[in-house]
Design brief:
The chain is mostly helical and 140 residues long. Helix content is 81%, strand content 0%. The protein has one domain.
Amino acid sequence: MKQKIIFFLLCDCISYTILSFIMFILSFFPSLVMSGSHQVYMSFFIVTTFIAFLITLTYCFEFSSFWLECLTLLTEIFLVVYGIGGGIFHWFEWEWVYLIEVAFICVVVFFITYILMYYHGQYIARKINQRIEDENHENY
């Protein structure tokens, strides 16, 4: 349970930071994105937290392939972003141009978060293996 909480918090923090950074960069092009007020960034946090919760639940299931896992996670992300972000928070207008732009931002945030989470997991695994190896050498 502790690992799931850590995973959830790490996923939420990384995805929120990446999304905020991308929106900050895109804010230099006012025709592309909405202005970033405190309410907008709070809505980003609510949506990324909900997505991180869904991803944490999704990882309770086994996937037969990497691509199926990515497709499932991206589908969840799109449903939450379009449903909550577009439907409740009105982040964008329901036109093809904005839907494609939002999809592109979602995919970029997803893959950067996925890569960072993967490397974090690898780092933790190396630390655990190193500790086990050190304990085995001490016992002999």
